[in-house]
Specification:
globular, 4 helices, alpha+beta, SH3 type barrels, 258 residues
């Protein structure tokens, strides 16, 4: 791998191939803070056992960006999910910094980033230990970004940077993401979730429109009213507002699914 220019606060551990960057980051994180400090970044050129949210497979051929970041923030575990919004904003800004003009980038609840209304990146958070009011022992923030290729036939349309006309290298993409994440995560640690929520709301897709939210055992339809102070989705339907903390969003009016 070529040298990549990223902030010195990161400790990069790179692989040609690995089963899962999240799995490796979790293994390293469990060794303790002395051996695996906050900011340890696992990066692999491909994954043989990549996974996405809710246990789904994440196709991981060479040419795309696969990273998992070990984080040890001194915040209650119940606030850890906010890091998904932090990472989405980081990807959003990174694409704006490296891409040509004229592209639409959106955040999609809860942890996806869309490029020209097609999925280009996904985020997966995992943690160990802690409690609602206690910090986790560690958090692993996985981020996969389609750079050179994207899967075909997915339920929600997907795309890649190369397909959309971006010419940046993997190293340039990683550099842009890590710099942007450092900025957004510092803001989150200093100011809390309020400014993250504010910026995510105007960058997101679907707010104020009718959506479907697929849960484990049913699908709800309503208007995407907002996200609350914890990042939960507020869905208005049948005169009530329902708070949803996990699910997959569909856009029925546009005929797309996710």
């Amino acid at each position: 791998m070529q040298n990549v220019k990223i902030p010195s606060l990161y400790n990069v551990i790179s692989y040609e191939t690995i089963g899962s960057t999240n799995g490796e980051a979790a293994r390293l994180a469990a060794l303790g803070e002395d051996l695996t400090p906050d900011g340890t970044l696992v990066w692999s050129l491909e994954q043989t056992d990549g996974r996405g949210r809710r246990g789904r497979d994440w196709q991981s051929p060479a040419g795309n960006l696969y990273t998992s970041l070990v984080l040890r923030p001194e915040v209650p575990l119940r606030e850890a999910a906010q890091l998904g919004f932090v990472a989405a904003l980081a990807v959003y800004d990174a694409l704006g910094n490296i891409g040509p003009a004229g592209h639409q980038v959106h955040c999609k609840w809860p942890n996806d980033v869309l490029l020209n209304e097609k999925k280009v990146a996904g985020i997966l958070l995992e943690s160990h230990g802690g409690g609602n009011d206690q910090p986790a022992d560690w958090i692993v923030l996985g981020m996969g970004l389609n750079v050179a290729s994207h899967p075909e036939g997915t339920e929600f349309p997907s795309t890649s940077l190369r397909y959309e006309g971006f010419s940046n290298t993997l190293e340039e993409t990683l550099s842009a993401y890590t710099r942007s994440f450092l900025s957004w995560s510092s803001r989150w640690l200093d100011q809390g979730f309020a400014p993250i929520r504010k910026d995510w709301r105007w960058r997101c897709i679907g707010r104020g429109k009718e959506i479907d939210v697929r849960l484990d055992n049913r699908t709800l339809r309503g208007v995407f009213e907002d996200i609350d102070e914890d990042g939960a989705l507020l869905l208005r339907g049948d005169g009530n507002v329902q708070r949803i903390t996990a699910g997959d969003v569909f856009f029925p009016a546009a005929g797309s699914r996710g």
